[in-house]
Amino acid sequence: MTTNEKVFISPGRYVQGEGVIARAGHYVSNLGQSALLIADDVVWKIAGEALSKSLEGDNVRFERAVFEGEASSREIDRLVKLGQKQKAEVVIGFGGGKAIDTAKGVAEKLEAACAVLPTTASTDAPTSALSVIYSDDGEFESYRFYTKNPDLVLVDTGIICKAPPRFLASGIADALATWVEARAAIRANANNMAGGKATLLGATIGEKCEEVLFEHALLAYQANQAQIVTPSFEAVVEANTLLSGLGFESGGLAGAHAIHNGFTALHGDIHDMTHGEKVAFGTVAQLILDQTPQAELEEYLDLYLALGLPVTLKALKLEDVSDEDLYRVAEAALKEGESSHNLAYELKPQQVVSAIKAVDVHARAFMEKVGLSE
Ligand SMILES: [Zn+2]
After folding, report:
1. Residues with Cβ within 5 Å of ion ligand 1?
2. Catalytic residues, which ones?
3. Would the pLDDT of 374 be above 80?
4. pLDDT tens profile 214-261
5. Domains along the chain?
6. How many other C-beta atoms lie within 10 A of the C-beta of residue 81?
7. Cα(112) to centroid of ligand 1, in Å?
8. Where is the Alcohol dehydrogenase iron-type/glycerol dehydrogenase GldA domain (predicted)?
């Protein structure tokens, strides 16, 4: 590859709106008549009937496979066998980030079309041509890259507004990392996740994503608490899903996600935290390493705190974390191939440890300043 090769990638079709699940059959039938549908029991209970009805209405035959909870190599292989038996032409991932990442891996191996129907706006997994693969115990293993993005991403905001607001907040945190990381990667002339440099479009999407979130995130969060769809809610679901997804993939990742991946190496209560919650903390750590001025840093802290996102060690369930454990996090974040190497500067583990501690220090100082208690 030449060093000036720019690459932008995206899903085949993106559909969003209240009640669009009723159109799933229409869109999926354009991809194939036989579907392997991956969804866990909780998701199926909430929205399975609406999806079944729509698929049946458009004569899509499908078999539901129960997703067992982890986006691991073993789970992907198990579901591939089911898809082979059924001769699935399309794989439907219905649920949260891990079910979606699993479905993408299954579709690639089956050489089938891939339809992604997220039931939360909690990560930017839906649109990308990659999966985050974890061990069966939930530790980050690797990114798995695919030959193409999903053929269809269909987002029913009427379903998403019924999910707990904590999921939306997590998606906002994942999406707020997008521009912080992409602009750092672009500054360093690093490659994006599509294996080239960012196009103007890739960069613009990341910047727009952040703008939408600072304008609408709190209003969307309130709408979600009341389980209603509003224009701000629609805007934030799009930012969390489409803008964040295209923005990170065709812009680039950097420190925030590497530090997130580092946190997955720890055991204990931190495993109760969502992807986005760990990313929120990692984003503030990167902002500190990026020498972000105080006023700007506080704008981020203010939004994270208003959304109940963890920016103190206590909130991240790491109140009693040892220096040795933080050093392990830092070493994992700086592993060869990690996106931390997309930053314009070289990092030593001790600098990452200090940045993690600094997140806690600055967040607590800010909370005291604005009269918030931990
Ligand atoms: Zn993420």
Report:
1. 174
2. 174, 257, 260, 275
3. no
4. 999 999 999 999 999 999 999 999 999 999 999 999 999 999 999 999
5. 14-160 (3.40.50.1970), 165-370 (1.20.1090.10)
6. 12
7. 25
8. 11-157
CA–centroid distance, 12 to ligand 1, in Å, is: 21
- pLDDT tens digits, 103-117: 999 999 999 999 999
Q: Which two tokens stand for residue 336?
A: 């060869």
pTM: 0.95
CA distances 293 to 140, 290, 299, 315, 342, Å, are: 32, 9, 10, 24, 21
Residue 27 above 60 pLDDT?
yes
In the reported structure, the alpha carbon of residue 58 is separated from the centroid of ligand 1 by a whole-number distance in angstroms of 34
Strand stretches in the chain, DSSP E: 14-17, 34-39, 61-66, 90-95, 113-118, 130-134, 140-145, 152-156
- pLDDT tens digit string along 44-65? 999 999 999 999 999 999 999 9
Q: Which helix (H) or strand (E) holds 24?
A: helix 24-29
**Contact of 175 with 205, CB cutoff 8 Å:** no
User: What is the distance in A from the centroid of ligand 1 to the CA of 86?
Assistant: 32
